[in-house]
Write a structure and sequence with these properties.
The protein has about 250 residues and is mostly helical. It has a single domain (about 5-245), classed as Up-down Bundle (Ferritin), CATH 1.20.1260. It has ten helices and no strands. The chain has helices at about 5-25, 30-60, 65-70, 90-110, 120-145, 150-165, 175-180, 190-205, 230-235, 240-245. The model has no long low-confidence stretch (mean pLDDT about 95).
């Protein structure tokens, strides 16, 4: 597997795992409209993962299709960031996680629309439209809950505090991120500036505390080292294919 294929997995894994997390909420949303909204975001993300995995399968002869990539890898073979695999928690936690990720994904995909690589460019052009909606939706809820009742404010404050140490990994470049610059991937330091502006502006409007930028950041997911949460996600997500190999709808 070359660096380009690894890069496709990283993009796909972030989308798939977060999409799977949101799918768990289907039928359990706080109100019907929001239940539908989160399910639609889940479908958007899983669709993004499929695009990346399909391209990967075209390049790697030992892989048949996107289903094999999603359902037949173990946790150490996934390269998503730790943030997206964390437990849903309450509604505030789910919204804060989505907001932090979407605030990163939007400028990242916007930059990727300028890629000279045809697939990455087309992937970004399609996906950025969805990501902008995800960001708008989650940012509105951040403000609504943060600047709402005393209880909703306190819960959002707690969610931000818990998730903050996982946000840095999104923008900490490793060797693969540097290699991806050759295909039009953006400088993560530039993305961090945009992310920080978006987050600070939204948290201020939501009357939530802006965490110190030098807080210790947890990392490892991009290299295949994960929390216990990913194993639980995969146990449920992959059960059918593991129990009945080769099953097709």
């Amino acid at each position: 597997m070359d660096s380009y294929s690894s890069y496709l997995l990283r993009i796909g894994d972030n989308a798939l795992i977060l999409g799977q997390r949101l799918a768990e909420i289907c039928g359990h949303g706080p109100v019907l409209e929001e239940d539908i909204a989160l399910t639609n975001i889940s479908l958007d993300l899983i669709g993004q993962a499929r695009m990346a995995y399909q391209r990967y399968a075209e390049l790697e002869s030992d892989v048949k299709d996107e289903d094999e990539i999603a359902f037949k890898r173990d946790s150490h073979e996934f390269y998503n960031c730790l943030l997206v695999e964390l437990d849903n928690g309450d509604f505030g936690m789910t919204i804060a996680r989505q907001f932090f990720f979407s605030a990163f994904q939007v400028p990242y995909l916007e930059a990727l629309t300028q890629s000279e690589d045809e697939f990455l460019r087309n992937f970004a052009l399609k996906s950025v439209k969805e990501a902008k909606y995800h960001l708008k939706h989650s940012a509105q809820w951040m403000v609504r809950l943060g600047d709402g009742t005393a209880e909703s404010h306190d819960r959002m404050e707690e969610s931000v505090n818990k998730l903050w140490p996982y946000t840095g990994e999104l923008m900490i470049a490793d060797e693969l991120d540097e290699k991806a610059r050759a295909w039009g991937a953006p400088d993560l330091l530039e993305i961090k500036k945009i992310w920080s502006d978006t987050v600070e502006r939204t948290l201020k409007e939501a009357t939530l505390t802006i965490e110190a930028p030098d807080v210790w950041m947890l990392r490892g997911g991009k290299q295949g080292n994960h929390t216990e949460h990913l194993g639980l996600i995969l146990a449920e997500m992959q059960f059918l294919q593991r129990a009945y190999p080769g099953l097709e709808w």
